[in-house]
Amino acid sequence: MKSLEELRVIRERMQGTVAYRSEHESLEEAVASEHGKYRTHVLVCGGTGCTSSGSQKIRERLDEEIRKNGLEEEVCVIKTGCFGLCALGPIMIVYPEGAFYSMIKEEDIPEIVEEHLAKGNVVKRLLYDETVKGEDVLPLQETNFYKKQHRVALRNCGVISPENIDEYIGTRGYEALGKVLTEMTPAEVIQVMLDSGLRGRGGAGFPTGMKWKFAAANEADQKYVCCNADEGDPGAFMDRSVLEGDPHVVLEAMAIAGYAIGASQGYIYVRAEYPIAVERLNIAIKQAREYGLLGEDIFGSGFDFDIELRLGAGAFVCGEETALMTSIEGNRGEPRPRPPFPALKGLFQKPTILNNVETLANIPQIILNGPEWFASMGTEKSKGTKVFALGGKVNNTGLVEIPMGTTLREIVEEIGGGIPKGKKFKAAQTGGPSGGCIPTENFDVPIDYDNLIAIGSMMGSGGLIVMDEDTCMVDIAKFFLEFTVDESCGKCAPCRIGTRRMLEILEKITKGQGTMEDLDRLEELAAHLKSNSLCALGQTAPNPVLSTLRYFKDEYIAHIVDKKCPAGVCKDLLQYKINADKCKGCTLCARICPNGAISGKVKEPHAINPEKCLKCGACMEKCRFGAIYKE
After folding, report:
1. Going by C-beta distance under 8 Å and a sequence separation of 6 or more, which residues neighbour residue 101?
2. Residue 73 burial (10 A CB sphere; 0-12, 13-18, 19+)
3. 94 and 116 Cβ atoms separated by less than 8 Å
4. What's the pLDDT band for 24 if we cut at 50, 70, 90?
5. Out of the domains of life, which is the source (predicted)?
6. pTM listed for this prediction
7. Which end of the chain is least crowded, N or C, by CB within 10 Å?
C-alpha cells in the first residue's frame, strides 16, 4: 500500500514528464522541467475513433522506425486517449514542439522519424493546417477548435497514458482522495459539492451535492456508489472518451463519493460495446488495488472502498438509474417506480448514489481547487463546463468542453468550423432521443440547463448533432421515435404503446398520407406520454416531435397538404426529373439505373419514368452535367 508520502514522491518524479507534453506551459518551461530521459515525446491517440482509423498500426510502425534510426534512448511513444478532433484521425502530437500531425498514414512515418524526430525538422505538410502559419508552428490552443475550450473533465485526455497510474499521479491524481480522507469529514466533502454548484452531467442536471446529502442521511449497514457509463444516446461519446483517456479520475471520484456517504462498494456499469474503455478500466482498477488506493484501510484512514465493473448489453433504458441498478442485480433492466428514490432504496434495496462519468471527472479538481474555482465558471444556475460530442453537418466533428453559457453559434461556427459546402445552419439536436431541436432563431441562446429546457430541448448527456438546410425535420423526429420505440422496455403501457402510435403517425406523414388532424393527435399522445410514463425514457420521448412541431410546423404542413418534402429527403414524396436543356444524352444515367426507369436516344434529352423510378439517387449522383434534380 502506498502512503501519502510515497504518492508525493511519485508525483514529484512524474510531474515534469507530464508537463513536458502540455501546452499549458511555455516551451521554455517544458524544456527546462524534469521530463525523464527522453528528449522527445510522441503522443499517439489510442481512443476508439483513431483506433478504428489505424492508430495502432501507426504506433507499431513508429516503434519500428525509431529502432531503425537508433532513437530508442531519445524518443518515447505514448498511447493516450482522445485529443478531441476525431475527424482528423489518426492523430499524433510531438513534444516539446507541440507539432500536431493529423490523418497520418503508415507510409508517412519514416519521413516523420527521419526528418522530425532525428533531425528536428517538422514535416509541415503533414500537420493540421490550422497549426501552420508561415514558418511558425502554432500550438493547438491557438486553433479555432481549441481556443474557446476549457478542459476540466477532459484535462488529462490526450496528455497522459491511461494505462500508467504513475502518470495520473503526476497530474495530482489521488491527491484529492488523500485530502478528503486525512483532512475532511464526510459532511465537509458534501458541503464542498453543494457550494460548487456541480449538477449531474448525465441528463436532468440534479445537484450532485444534494444527491450525496440525501444518501448520507440514510442509515444502513451497506451503501453503494454507482457510475453510469452506459452511454446510449446516438452520436454521444463523451463518457467513453473519459474512460479511455483518464480512467483513474473516475475511480478516485467514486472513492471520494463513497467516503462522503459512507459506502464501501462501488460499481461501474459500462457498455460492453466499449471494449477499449472496459480494458483500461480493468487495468486502472488492478493498478489502484496494487497501490492500496482501492481496498481496505486506504491511506491508513480506516476507510474501505472497492470497485467492480458490470457490463451492460446495450439497452438504452439502462441509462435510467433504477433500470441500471436492476441490471446490476442480475435482473432484466427495467425501471422501478419512484419513490422510494435510490438514495433511500437503490441497489440491492440499500442507499445508493448514481453519477455519470463526466460528473465524476469534475470532482477531484473541485476538491483540490475549491468550490469557488468551479463555481466561477459557467452561469448562475449552471456552474462549470460541459463536454459535448459535436457531430453531424459540421466541419470539425469531435469532442469539445466549453464553459456553460457558451452559445450554440460559438460552438457551431467557431469551434465546429461552420457547416460544410457553404450550406446554411438549420437546427441542432441536443439531449439525444430525450432532447429537442434548436432552430436558427435560438442560435445565440447561452447553453445551460435552464435555457435549453425553456426552448424545448435539454442538456442530456451531451450529444450535439448539427443539421443543415438539407435535413428534413419530420424525418429527424421519426428517426428518434424509431429509436425510442426500439429501446422501450415495454414495462409501462404509455411508453410501450404511445411511442409506437406516434411513430405510426409520423410514418403516415412522411409517406404523404397524413392529415392535419394527425398533428393534434401527436400533441395529445405526447401529453399522455409525458404525464403517465414510468421513467424518463417515455416521459422525454415526445421531445423531438414537440420541438420540431414548435419550430418547423411548416414542414409538417408541406408533407400533409402539398405532399412534398421541402428538404427532398422523404422518398415517397420525391420525384427525380431531368432538365432537358442540360441533358447531353450521354446515356450514363440510363446505364446505371438499376430498374431501367430512364430512357432516351444518344445525344438527345432523356426522361425518367416516375412509376419505375426507385428513387435511389444513383442517376443524380453520377450525372456530370447537373441535369438531374429532385423535387
Report:
1. 91, 92, 93, 94, 108, 112, 123, 126, 127, 128
2. exposed
3. yes
4. very low
5. Bacteria
6. 0.93
7. C
Rounded distance between C-alpha atoms, residue 287 and residue 166, angstroms: 10
> Is the Cβ–Cβ distance between 624 and 615 less than 8 Å?
no
Q: Which residues are CB-contacts of 340 (< 8 A; sequence separation ≥ 6)?
A: none
Q: Which residue has the cell 524526430?
A: 117
The 3-class secondary structure across 71-115, one letter per residue, is CCCCEEEEEECCCCCHHHCCCEEEECCCEEECCCCHHHHHHHHHH
C-alpha dist (Å) from residue 339 to 320, 342, 409: 14, 8, 40
DSSP single-letter state for residue 383: B
Q: What is the pLDDT of residue 23?
A: 52
Task: Provide mean pLDDT across the span 304-310.
Answer: 98
What span, in angstroms and rounded, lies between the C-alpha atoms of 359 and 270? 15
Mean pLDDT computed over 610-623: 92
Nearest to 575 by CA among 624, 630, 532: 630
Mean pLDDT over the full length of the chain = 93
Closest by CA to 265, choosing from 220, 315, 311, 229, is 220
Contacts of 300 (CB under 8 A, 6+ apart): 1, 3
Query: Rounded distance, CA 445 to CA 53, Å?
Result: 36
Distance between CA atoms of 297 and 550, rounded to whole angstroms? 56
